[in-house]
From TrEMBL:
Coiled coil: none annotated. Pfam families: Sigma70_r2, Sigma70_r3, Sigma70_r4. This is RNA polymerase, sigma 28 subunit, FliA/WhiG subfamily. Gene3D superfamilies: 1.10.1740.10, 1.20.140.160. One of its GO terms (molecular function) is DNA binding. Residues 22-82, 91-160, 176-222 form the RNA polymerase sigma-70 region domain. GO terms for biological process: DNA-templated transcription initiation. It comes from the Bacteria. Keywords: DNA-binding, Sigma factor, Transcription, Transcription regulation.
Amino acid sequence: MSHDIDRDALVVQNLALVGYAVSEMLRRVPPTVSRDELASAGSLALVLAARSYDPSTGVPFARYASLRIRGALVDELRSMDWASRGARTRVRELAAASERLTAAMGRPPTREELASALGTQVSQVDEVRSDAARRVLSIDAGDGPSIVDLVVDAGQTPEQAVLAGERLRWLRASVDTLPERLRVVVRGIFLEDRSVAELAEELGVTQSRISQLRTEALGLLRDGMNTHLDPDLVTPAERPDGVAERRRQAYFASIAARTAQYAAAERLSFVPQPSQPAVVREHASTA
C-alpha cells in the first residue's frame, strides 16, 4: 500500500460525501432516525477509508469512500433496530394466538392460556409481551401485542428501506445501460406489457429470437447487479480475456457510472422544506 498521500487531506476534502450520504438515507427512513448518529458513523467510515485507501488500485477515493460510508450507515441503521427477526416472529405468533383465543372464548386469554396454546411457558409469554411493549412504548400505552402487529410491522425497517431504495437504483441503472436491443426487450415485456409477437415485428426477428434476447438480458442484468451488490454470486467467465467478457465488464462499469449519476441527481433534487411558508415577492421585470 502506498503511503505517499496525505490521508488527513483526503478526509477534509471529502467530508461532503458524509453529508450527501446521510441526507440521502434520511429521505428513506422514519423521522425518528437521528441525523447526528448517522453522521458520526459516516465520518468514522470516511476516516477509516482514508487510512486503508490504496491508490494503486486505480479506484477513485471518492468512489471507494462512498461505498464504505454507505455500508457504515446501513450498519448503524441495523444497530438502531434492537429487535431480532426471531423476536418479531414471536410477537406476531403471540398476537395471532391471542386473537384466536379471544374469538373462541369471547374474552382476552390469560397468560396461562396463551402459554398452553403456544406450547411454551408462562415466563416466555411474559418475555414476548415485554418485547412487544418495548416496541410500541412510544405510540401506545397498552401492552396488547396486536398493536405491534398492526402498526409497527406494517412498514419496512430503516435498514430495509435503505437497501430497497439502493437496489432499485442499481436495477434502474442496469436496465438503462443494457445494449439497445436487450433494453427494448426488457422494457417491452416487463415494463410496457407488450407481447413477444409485437416486439418481434418491431425488431424484425422471430419470436423465438425475442425469447433468446430476454434470457440473455436477464442473465446480464443479474450479473450486473450482483457484481456491485453481491459479488460472490456472479457467474465466472469461461474466457476471462475474451471479447465477450470485455463487453460484460464494460457494461458492469457503465452500471456503476449511471448509478452514481442517479444518486447525484437525487441529492441535487433534495431541497429541505422550511418550517414556515416562504414569502414570495414579485419583482418588476426590467426592460
